[in-house]
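Lab notebook, bench 4. We co-purified these components, and the gel suggests they stay together. Before we commit to crystallization screens, I want a quick structural picture of the whole thing.
Request: model the full complex, all chains together.
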Amino acid sequence: MADRERLVNITLALIVPACALAAYGMGEPFYVTLATRIAILALAATGLNLALGLGGLVSFGHAAFFGIGGYVAGIFATHAFNQIPLLVSPVTLMATNQMPVIWLVSAVVAGLVACLIGLISLRTSGVYFIMITLAFAQMIYYFAISWPAYGGEDGLSITVRNGFPGLNTLDPLNFFLIAYGLLLLALSAFSQLRDSRFGAALQATRQNEVRVASIGIRPLRIRLVAFIISGMITAIAGALFADLNRFVGPSMLSWSMSGELIVLIILGGTGRLFGPVAGAILFVLFEFALGGLTEHWQLFLGLILLAVVLFGRGGLVGLLAGKVRHG
Amino acid sequence: MSSALLIEQALNGLQFGVMLFLMAAGLTLIFGVMGVINLAHGSLYMVGAFACAAVAAYTGSFWLGLVASLIAAAAAGAIVEVTVIRRLYNRDHLDQVLATFALILIFSEGTRWVFGSFPLYLDIPKVLQGAISLPGGAQYQLYRLAIIGAGLVVAIGLYLLIAKTRLGMRIRAGESDREMISALGVDIASLNTIVFALGAALAGLAGALVGALQSVQVGMGEPVLILAFVVIVIGGIGSIKGALAGAILVGVVDTMGRFLLPQLFTLFMQPSQAATAGAAIASMLIYIVMAFILAVRPKGLFAVNA
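Here is the predicted assembly.
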């Protein structure tokens, strides 16, 4: 069974870049952008999969981290383009348009916010946790709307996509490779974490909190660390997403974005390494195929999702590679 | 700042709180009895508003529209319970979140399909148009006062229903032990449908009442739904009393914060900066209040012993 999952994973890992390369070769940059979108959404959902899939923390507020990453990218791009320092006192701080720095800043800011949200929300569990993460994400959403310095309700356009040393990010294939490379990095980090002592402890807190506590591991600390790492990965995806669209707005922070990230994981397979990738492929293809047929494609997405939740558990990876034996 | 303005804003806060209570009462009842988190509650609010606007536009009577909103929302709630929610009782919260998220997509797109993307408008009924004078010289919109009155009547009615009637007794019994009351011969399936339809009707009523103050459009339910979540998290999930206290608190804090904070900030900031900063902080205020309450009482103000 494990071999079958490996086969499915390798297929999924190869199919996205193969399609992107083929589209690029045939001079169809639109499909390269579609593949980039898949890679970025899969990266965001991989972050969430760490908290939700391994830790059982149903965060309905991961759009907060996604949006924070997006706003960091947008703010840096605007400041760098206009040559306005980010900070004047106590030290003058110039903005950069280099992606690695932006990713680092996104991850640090999102990590701090995740730490604050986690400290309050992880004291609760179940429905409370769902509602509180949703409420905090909504708080940041309203802050972004009512703070006019960076576009408020209208959002922020990124005039020139941020750069990456040695690559031309304006070329769709180069940008795809950056996003896809980060996705592979995140997937390998996810699998390392899952098989580490930390990952074992995290999965154990999901299965039985009392037993974990009784052998001397503090569930709160394990969950908090998982929640922070999860938010950081999602924030880096958010920075890429803003660069992909050359725009960041409050919609990246909205509750429906949080919902979509959960949907990606469920469509693909909860807690599975390649679940988010499979989910992102399905989601973007649904959006593209159904969106071409009818403007009411979300109605059909809702029906499909309802059917998956009620009748087809385990998602696409579960369907292809079989169910996991342990719960 | 005049006292008349202050009274007006306080009443606005109360009206907002009462409206949130109508939403939160249904949510907390459904969670208390069935253990289900229903994200689609905001869609039922939207169904009520659309039913009221459509019937009022067709017949010319707001009151017929109000009746229609109750019937439409209760019917939508009952259908949703029988077809979808019933299958989720023994599932984990993740499945409930996803299934009801799917319902939001279906309701929103379905409504957009039928009514189009343009908002509908609903007029305030003739009897309730105009303003009345309050002590202290303030003028206040009669319709908003009527909403406050209607909300308080519903709160008392709900209390009587739950504390004094046979149905209420079954609801309370269902909250404490589902298996036991079904073993005692109560038809738990139809009790669930009734509770869900009741919660839906309250949400539909809220939608219809607010529809006359704002425009009726797709997506109007979700911001209110999220505030209703904040309300029941503050009040304690499953507690109607907590929902009332939480709703009034959230309504008043939010409205007064938006009114007072920008003025407060002018004491130590330039007026333009104070307006921006005040508005930004005010939009986050209720979430900050929620965080503080949770830090002190993680299960809410009126926690129900589970």
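The mean pLDDT of chain A is 89. Worth comparing against the SEC data before the next meeting. Residues 45 and 261 of chain A are 6 Å apart (CA to CA).
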